[in-house]
Write a structure and sequence with these properties.
The complex is a heterodimer of chains A (156) and B (165). Chain A has 156 residues and is α+β, with helices and mostly antiparallel strands. Chain A has one domain: START domain (Alpha-D-Glucose-1,6-Bisphosphate, Chain A, domain 4). Chain A is built from 4 helices and 7 strands; from the N terminus they run αβααββββββα. Chain A has a 7-stranded antiparallel sheet, with helices on both faces. In chain A, a hairpin with a 4-residue loop joins strand 3 and strand 4. With 165 residues, chain B is mostly helical. Helices cover 72% and strands 0% of the residues of chain B. Chain B is built from 9 helices and no strands. In chain B, helix 1 crosses helix 2, helix 7 crosses helix 8 and helix 8 crosses helix 9. Classes of the chains: A alpha+beta (156), B mainly alpha (165). Chains A and B meet through helix 1 of A and helix 2, helix 3 and helix 6 of B.
Amino acid sequence: MMTWPVAEVDAIRRLRVLAAAVPGAVVAEATYDAPFAQVWAVAADLEHELPVYLPDVRTLRITRREGDRLEAYARGYAGMRARFDIVLRPGWCVMRSRFLLGGMAAVPDGERTRFAFLSGVHFPGQRALAPGLTRLGRIASPHVLNRLAEQVRLRS
Amino acid sequence: MNEDLVRVIRAAQRGDGLAMAELLDVLTPVVARWCGPIALQDAADAAQEALIAIFRGIGFLVEPAALFGWARTITVREAVRVARRTARERPAELPELPSRDDPMLAVDIGDVLARLTPEHRAVLMLRDLEGLDERAAAELLGVPAGTVKSRLSRARDNFRKGWQA
């Protein structure tokens, strides 16, 4: 039987697409010296680990879970409270509140793991703010990747 | 097109990131299928660039029902552009496109594709995977119908020569 070639579009490529489509969104990427299961166990543990690797979030509570769809409420240190709609499945997570968009993607690379983190803000007028938001994201994202690496190391 | 998908498209057009992610789930497999035969070893890059072009332009899609045809046009053009950029094709020994029922196609599609230019691969994919006729393929590639016809016929002859050699 004839088998046509099909492109392999992994989760990190898909996260890059999302970042390119949302004005002001930024993707930062890193390769961790840990297997996929270990990295994703930390990244996907949103209630316990997200407040550790995302410096702005104090608590996150999941209030609903239906398949890969979640609803969560997050509290920030400045007292801000936000409801998030989340898609979470192995190697892929996208979180959206009224103003914020977050995303994570992980792809196994032998015994290592390629990981990407997306941060963005979406609200009316965002296009005008996009260059500033992009700069902010570029500064903040490497810290998130480093904190996550530290959490992965601590759990191993 | 079902109502849920129309809602997702409309939300993505308003800049809703979660809706964009949902639409990405729908479009990624088809874009991957379109890019594979055209861009070959560069297919993953081509698919990523095609998806970026699709999502950056999603606001220009007037009729949600036209999503797949619109996305296919963008994808085929991006895939040809990416494949041409790397210029790994072997135009000197350009073979011709085999006919739809040619047993040679079934033997080794990878070998057939490797002998064609990106444009020929696009025509072959549009014809055999998407069921387009020459006029539609021409429209999609942005070339006059006659050009596609001659590309098809030239590709067919060269392909036969390649296999008979």
